[in-house]
Specification:
The protein is of the alpha+beta class. It is about 35% helix and about 25% strand. It has one domain: Thiol Ester Dehydrase, Chain A (Roll), CATH 3.10.129. Strands 1, 2, 3, 4, 5, 6 and 7 form a seven-stranded antiparallel β-sheet that branches. A hairpin with a 2-residue loop joins strand 2 and strand 3. The protein is globular and about 45 Å long. The two termini are about 20 Å apart.
Protein backbone atom coordinates (compact mmCIF):
# COMPACT_ATOMS: atom_id res chain seq x y z
CA UNK A 1 0.00 0.00 0.00
CA UNK A 2 1.30 3.45 -0.85
CA UNK A 3 0.80 5.68 2.18
CA UNK A 4 0.41 9.39 1.45
CA UNK A 5 0.27 12.53 3.56
CA UNK A 6 -3.23 13.96 3.78
CA UNK A 7 -5.13 10.69 3.54
CA UNK A 8 -7.14 9.09 6.33
CA UNK A 9 -6.20 5.62 7.60
CA UNK A 10 -7.16 3.07 10.26
CA UNK A 11 -4.61 1.38 12.53
CA UNK A 12 -4.24 -2.23 13.63
CA UNK A 13 -4.87 -3.24 17.24
CA UNK A 14 -1.40 -4.77 17.30
CA UNK A 15 0.16 -1.28 17.40
CA UNK A 16 -1.47 -0.48 20.73
CA UNK A 17 -0.33 -3.79 22.20
CA UNK A 18 3.26 -3.13 21.11
CA UNK A 19 3.41 0.51 22.24
CA UNK A 20 1.34 0.08 25.43
CA UNK A 21 0.93 3.82 26.12
CA UNK A 22 -2.03 4.80 28.30
CA UNK A 23 -2.12 8.27 26.73
CA UNK A 24 -3.10 6.93 23.31
CA UNK A 25 -6.80 7.23 22.50
CA UNK A 26 -8.83 4.33 23.86
CA UNK A 27 -9.69 1.20 21.93
CA UNK A 28 -13.17 0.15 20.79
CA UNK A 29 -15.21 2.88 22.42
CA UNK A 30 -18.87 1.91 22.65
CA UNK A 31 -18.46 -0.92 20.16
CA UNK A 32 -16.74 1.22 17.55
CA UNK A 33 -13.20 0.83 16.32
CA UNK A 34 -10.49 3.35 17.05
CA UNK A 35 -10.78 6.72 15.38
CA UNK A 36 -9.59 7.39 11.88
CA UNK A 37 -6.27 9.16 11.51
CA UNK A 38 -4.99 11.95 9.33
CA UNK A 39 -1.53 10.80 8.23
CA UNK A 40 1.74 12.62 7.70
CA UNK A 41 4.48 10.63 6.00
CA UNK A 42 8.00 11.45 7.20
CA UNK A 43 10.40 8.97 5.58
CA UNK A 44 9.75 5.60 7.28
CA UNK A 45 7.81 7.14 10.17
CA UNK A 46 4.13 7.97 9.81
CA UNK A 47 2.50 10.49 12.10
CA UNK A 48 -1.11 9.66 12.92
CA UNK A 49 -3.38 12.46 14.07
CA UNK A 50 -6.69 11.17 15.48
CA UNK A 51 -10.00 12.45 14.17
CA UNK A 52 -13.10 12.51 16.34
CA UNK A 53 -16.78 13.13 15.72
CA UNK A 54 -17.26 14.58 19.23
CA UNK A 55 -17.41 18.21 18.12
CA UNK A 56 -19.52 19.41 21.08
CA UNK A 57 -17.07 17.86 23.57
CA UNK A 58 -14.12 19.77 22.13
CA UNK A 59 -15.72 23.17 21.42
CA UNK A 60 -15.44 24.39 25.05
CA UNK A 61 -11.87 23.10 25.29
CA UNK A 62 -10.92 25.07 22.19
CA UNK A 63 -12.72 28.17 23.48
CA UNK A 64 -10.87 27.94 26.81
CA UNK A 65 -7.51 27.68 25.03
CA UNK A 66 -8.35 30.64 22.79
CA UNK A 67 -9.32 32.75 25.83
CA UNK A 68 -6.11 31.79 27.63
CA UNK A 69 -3.60 31.83 24.74
CA UNK A 70 -5.33 33.77 21.96
CA UNK A 71 -5.38 30.70 19.70
CA UNK A 72 -5.71 26.93 19.67
CA UNK A 73 -3.44 24.94 17.37
CA UNK A 74 -3.69 21.62 19.23
CA UNK A 75 -7.34 20.93 18.35
CA UNK A 76 -9.14 21.94 15.16
CA UNK A 77 -12.76 21.53 14.11
CA UNK A 78 -13.00 21.37 10.35
CA UNK A 79 -15.17 19.77 7.70
CA UNK A 80 -13.93 16.46 6.30
CA UNK A 81 -16.05 14.66 3.72
CA UNK A 82 -18.99 16.93 4.45
CA UNK A 83 -18.97 16.36 8.23
CA UNK A 84 -17.49 18.45 11.03
CA UNK A 85 -14.58 16.54 12.55
CA UNK A 86 -12.24 17.21 15.42
CA UNK A 87 -8.56 17.01 14.49
CA UNK A 88 -6.60 16.19 17.63
CA UNK A 89 -3.04 17.30 16.93
CA UNK A 90 -2.28 17.06 20.67
CA UNK A 91 -2.91 13.30 20.41
CA UNK A 92 -0.57 12.72 17.45
CA UNK A 93 1.80 9.78 17.58
CA UNK A 94 4.38 8.07 15.34
CA UNK A 95 3.82 4.67 13.77
CA UNK A 96 4.95 2.50 10.86
CA UNK A 97 3.26 1.41 7.66
CA UNK A 98 3.07 -2.18 8.89
CA UNK A 99 0.57 -1.06 11.55
CA UNK A 100 -1.90 0.42 9.07
CA UNK A 101 -5.04 -1.64 8.82
CA UNK A 102 -6.53 0.09 5.76
CA UNK A 103 -7.22 3.41 4.10
CA UNK A 104 -10.52 5.04 5.01
CA UNK A 105 -12.85 5.32 2.04
CA UNK A 106 -15.61 7.74 1.23
CA UNK A 107 -17.97 7.04 -1.65
CA UNK A 108 -15.75 4.11 -2.61
CA UNK A 109 -12.51 6.12 -2.88
CA UNK A 110 -9.61 6.66 -0.46
CA UNK A 111 -10.42 9.71 1.65
CA UNK A 112 -8.02 12.60 1.21
CA UNK A 113 -8.58 15.91 2.96
CA UNK A 114 -8.66 19.02 0.79
CA UNK A 115 -5.27 20.66 0.23
CA UNK A 116 -6.08 23.81 2.23
CA UNK A 117 -6.92 21.72 5.30
CA UNK A 118 -3.94 19.42 4.75
CA UNK A 119 -1.66 22.46 4.71
CA UNK A 120 -3.27 23.90 7.84
CA UNK A 121 -2.77 20.62 9.70
CA UNK A 122 0.83 20.35 8.49
CA UNK A 123 1.56 23.94 9.58
CA UNK A 124 0.07 23.36 13.02
CA UNK A 125 1.91 20.05 13.41
CA UNK A 126 5.23 21.68 12.48
CA UNK A 127 4.48 24.48 14.93
CA UNK A 128 3.81 21.99 17.76
CA UNK A 129 7.00 20.09 16.89
CA UNK A 130 9.01 23.34 16.94
CA UNK A 131 7.58 24.19 20.37
CA UNK A 132 8.53 20.72 21.58
CA UNK A 133 12.12 21.23 20.42
CA UNK A 134 12.17 24.43 22.49
CA UNK A 135 10.93 22.60 25.60
CA UNK A 136 7.17 23.21 25.35
CA UNK A 137 5.61 19.79 24.84
CA UNK A 138 1.91 19.95 23.96
CA UNK A 139 1.61 16.29 22.89
CA UNK A 140 -0.17 13.89 25.24
CA UNK A 141 1.89 10.82 24.37
CA UNK A 142 5.65 10.43 24.74
CA UNK A 143 6.27 10.81 21.02
CA UNK A 144 10.06 10.61 21.41
CA UNK A 145 9.86 7.25 23.17
CA UNK A 146 7.37 5.86 20.66
CA UNK A 147 9.39 7.16 17.68
CA UNK A 148 12.50 5.49 19.11
CA UNK A 149 10.52 2.23 19.42
CA UNK A 150 9.38 2.50 15.80
CA UNK A 151 12.88 3.28 14.53
CA UNK A 152 14.22 0.31 16.50
CA UNK A 153 11.67 -1.92 14.77
CA UNK A 154 13.02 -0.77 11.42
CA UNK A 155 16.52 -2.07 12.22
Amino acid sequence: MEVKTGYIYHIKDEYFDVVNDSMLMSNHERGKKRPTYFTIKEKEILWFIPLSSKVEKYKPIIEKKVRKHGQCRTILIREIAGVNSVILLQNAFPTLEKYISHVHTFEGKPLKVIDALKNEILDDFKYLMSLKKRGFNLFFTDIDKIKAMMLEELK
